[in-house]
Automatic annotation (TrEMBL):
Transmembrane helix is among the record's keywords: yes
Membrane topology per record: Single-pass membrane protein; Single-pass type II membrane protein
Signal peptide: none
Record-linked InterPro entries: Put_SAM_MeTrfase, SAM-dependent_MTases_sf
Protein EC: 2.1.1.-
This protein's record includes keyword Transferase: yes
Species this protein is from: Hibiscus sabdariffa
Subcellular location as annotated: Endomembrane system; Membrane
Pfam families, per database record: Methyltransf_29
SUPFAM superfamilies recorded: S-adenosyl-L-methionine-dependent methyltransferases (SSF53335)
Transmembrane domains' residue ranges: 21-41
Protein name: Methyltransferase
């Protein structure tokens, strides 16, 4: 093949043609390959439901026209079309088909990655065939309808560990886990020898990599509210099972970013075989756990590397990091280690290069925020958040925490907010017939939670509330955790990290503020997409309560038919000031017909 090195003028024109032809063919094939793999052409040829649908609204102009028509209410006789049958469990920001092409470094590809609104089909997610209204709480903790999430993979793989098994039309949950095949009960009793599980000292817990959340489910009876998380994973839908059981849970991966919680949020953090490499990347993940753990709080790790065969180095490193951060070793019991976080720590010299963060670091800022390799300073103020200093549950629910002072007159605002929501919730129940307090409502979301007043007013009801603090509003989520409630930061111009059909009731005060730029009348995204997302998260026959100005409520009312809800518009409570109406809507229970799929 020496002729390839000849100067161009000397080459034989016939060889040129042949080479050109071969090269052109090669490039054409490469191009075709790229088209098939990376563009809607390939997707439509693969004809895999979701992609076919993307093509149906893949023209952004057409999508914008449809959104504009819906916002003006011109479409109210015509509901938005149903998504295809294979999208019943679709989570736009945790879509393995989209995210698998991203970097695997530090599990980046398993974190949230949201499509732009123009890349998302405008359609309503259908329930799976045979879907039934979920088993009610508290029976749901032990059994759910198999047809609501017919994923047998976990039952097949983990049945021997007591996670779950199929029985007639149900999946039943014996309460086991990988590290506690005998059930979470005896395991929690073991922990109770070292940690004050009862008595209200510990209230908020985080369970990392939680399986089907039997641990969090079992702690509820002790008055401990556990937020369980796991990524969208190979076992198919662990979090979906947890939510169907009525246990607080959320799809999340500890990868390259801070978890969407404030500093010092959790009284107790638990990892049972969560396989998080706490000491990798200069102990970055341990540092993140430290950010989230309240001074005086407890960290429990069960499973590898704790006294685990062939993991001596990892176990030694884990202990070294804990020592560097002044954690007190309470116990090592078999493959379980229990540490207590100090109220303050002068960092020890350590081989991990861990330093204190500088003053510019806001430890509670955690929305798309890269993990830091520095430790949040504990100061004299932190003593005020320490376990033992804050009141025990339930007193802490109505005690204004020092962190409310981030707002001007924060303490007064807190007290007024608590009274206001007690009054409003009573009105919802007594005058608007909202089913709060009945067994029909278990999983509740407050999309604009502020200080958590709405959730606090539901304290005696058999519910749990996911309090969402919008990422562009004042960061009041720390106050919500100080009260003994749970929640996350989120930006409502993006889909939420949960499965379809997660919540029985979704509440939102000030819906328009969620899509506006702060302090501006300009929208960052549109109400139609937000309503479609609320619909995705809501169970069939679930309830939506929206309060806002009469003008905004009128806008929302124009769109309820499009998302197939039925709604009434109500006056606000007679004692409330300001101009507000309340829309109460019910999601109709519709199924895909064979023609629409």
């Amino acid at each position: 093949m020496g002729h390839l090195n000849l100067p161009p003028s000397k080459r034989n024109p016939r060889q040129w043609k042949l080479l050109d032809f071969i090269s052109a063919l090669f490039f054409a094939l490469v191009l075709l390959f790229f088209l098939l793999v990376f563009t809607p052409l390939g997707d439509s040829m693969a004809a895999s439901g979701r992609q076919a649908l993307l093509v149906s609204t893949s023209d952004p102009k057409q999508r914008h026209r449809l959104v504009a028509l819906l916002e003006q209410g011109h479409h109210h006789h015509q509901p938005i079309e149903a998504c295809p049958a294979d999208s019943v469990d679709h989570m736009p920001c945790e879509d393995p088909r989209r995210n698998s092409q991203l970097s695997r470094e530090m599990n980046f590809y398993r974190e949230r990655h949201c499509p732009l609104p123009d890349e998302m089909p405008l359609c309503l997610i259908p329930p799976p065939p045979g879907y039934k209204i979920p088993v009610q709480w508290p029976e749901s903790l032990h059994k759910i309808w198999h047809s609501n999430m017919p994923h047998n993979k976990i039952a097949d793989r983990k049945g021997h560990q007591g996670w779950m098994k199929e029985q007639g039309p149900y999946f039943i949950f014996p309460g086991g886990g990988t590290m506690f095949p005998d059930g979470a009960g005896p395991y929690i009793e073991k922990l109770g020898q070292y940690i004050p599980i009862t008595g209200g000292t510990i209230r908020t817990a985080l369970d990392m990599g939680c399986g089907v959340a039997s641990f969090g489910g079992s702690l509820l009876s002790e008055g401990i509210l556990t937020l369980s998380f796991a990524p969208r994973d190979s076992h198919k839908a662990q979090i979906q099972f947890a939510l169907e059981r009525g246990v607080p849970a959320f799809v999340l991966m500890l990868g390259t970013r801070r978890l969407p919680f404030p500093a010092f949020a959790f009284d107790f953090i638990h990892c049972s075989r969560c396989l998080i490499p706490f000491t990798a990347y200069n102990a970055t993940y341990f540092i993140e756990v430290d950010r989230l753990l309240r001074p005086g709080g407890y960290l429990v790790i069960s499973g590898p590397p704790v006294q685990w065969p062939k993991q001596d180095k990892e176990w030694a490193d884990l202990q070294a990091v804990a020592r560097a951060l002044c954690y007190e070793l309470i116990a090592v019991d078999g493959n379980t280690v229990i540490w207590k976080k100090p109220d303050s720590c002068i960092l020890n010299q350590n081989e991990f290069g861990i330093e204190l963060c500088d003053e510019s670091n806001d430890p509670s800022y955690a929305w798309y925020f890269k993990l830091k390799k520095c430790v949040t300073k504990t100061s004299s103020v932190n003593g005020e958040y320490a376990i033992g200093t804050i009141p025990n549950w339930p007193d802490r629910l109505i005690t204004a925490p020092s962190r409310a002072l981030v707002m001007r007159n924060g303490i007064d605002l807190f007290m007024a907010d608590t009274r206001r929501w007690a009054r409003r919730v009573a009105y919802y129940k007594n005058n608007l017939n909202v089913k709060l307090g009945t067994s029909a409502v278990r999983n509740v979301m407050d999309m604009n939670a502020f200080f958590g007043g709405f959730a606090a007013a539901l304290k005696s009801d058999p519910v749990w509330v996911m309090n969402v603090v919008p990422a562009r509003k004042p960061l009041t989520l720390d106050v919500i955790y100080d009260r003994g409630l749970i929640g996350v930061y989120h930006d409502w111009c993006e889909p939420f990290s949960t499965y379809p059909r997660s919540y029985d009731l979704i509440h939102v005060a000030g819906i328009e503020s969620l899509i506006k730029l702060p302090g501006s009348s300009k929208s960052r995204c549109n109400l139609v997409d937000l309503m479609v997302e609320i619909d995705r998260m809501l169970r069939p026959e679930g309830t939506v309560v929206i309060r806002d100005s009469p003008e905004v409520i009128e806008k929302v009312a124009r769109m309820v038919h499009a998302v197939r809800w039925t709604a009434t518009i109500n006056n606000k409570e007679p004692e409330s000031h300001g101009r507000e109406n309340i829309l109460v809507a019910t999601k109709t229970f519709w199924q895909l017909t064979s023609s629409s799929s």
